[in-house]
Design a protein that fits this description.
Structural class: mainly alpha
Radius of gyration: 21 Å
Number of helices: 7
Number of domains: 1
Strand content: under 5%
Helix content: 55-70%
Shape: globular
Order of helices and strands: HEEHHHHHH
Oligomer: single chain
Distance between the termini: 42 Å
Amino acid sequence: MTLRRAGRAGLVLLALTAFVQFLLPWFAGDDGEVVIGLDLTYVEAELPEPANPLTQYFLEVAPLPAYVALLLAGTVAARRRWARIVAVVVVVLAAALAVVAAVGLLSAVEDYWEPYEAVRYQIYAVVTGGLAVLLLAGAGVLAAGLRRAYDGLVAGLLVAFAAFQMVGVGLLAGEGVGASMTAVPWLAGAAYLAAAVCAVLAAVGSASGDRTDDAAPAPPPPLVRA
C-alpha cells in the first residue's frame, strides 16, 4: 500500500511539474522577450519554410499532453468503487479536451491556404482525435473494472508524451529558433517519463494490495449461543 501511495503522489507531483514547464519561458531573446510553452504558435513564424510537419504539429498541440497528464494523474491505481467512478468521469473529460483540440485544428484551416497545408491540419486533427478515442477506450476499460489494463494504458501514454515532447523539442532545437531555446522544454519531457515510472510503481503497489486482500483469511463466523 505504501508503494501505491508513493507512486500516486509522485505521479501527481510530476504531472504538475510537467504542466508548470509550459508556464515558464521556452525561448528567450536578446531583447528580453520570452515565449512561454502555452504560446508556441508565435514561434512558427520564425521557422524556415516549408515547416517540418511534425515540428508544426508539436507547436500546435504541445500543451495538450500536459493537460491530459494532469487530469489522468489522479486516476491511476484507484481501488475504491467511488474513486473509479470519479476517475472514469475525469478520463472522459480528458477525451473531451482532445476533441476540442482536434476541432480547433480543423477550424484553423483557411480558404486561402495551399491544399497541402489544409491536408496537414486535417491529418493533425485526425491524430488528435485518435488520442480522444484512446482515452475513451481507457474510460471503458476502467469502467469495466480492468484496473491493471487501464494503469498500463496511462503509463504507456505518459511514455508516448515524453517521446513526443523530446522529439518535438529536438526538432525545434535544430531549427533557426534553437539558439534562443531554454532548458525548460527538456524538463517537461523528463517529467513525463518520470511520471510514467511512478504510474508503474502505483500500479504494482495496487496489484500487491489486491493479492494481500485475496490472501487474507476470512473472518470467523459469529458465535451462536444456544
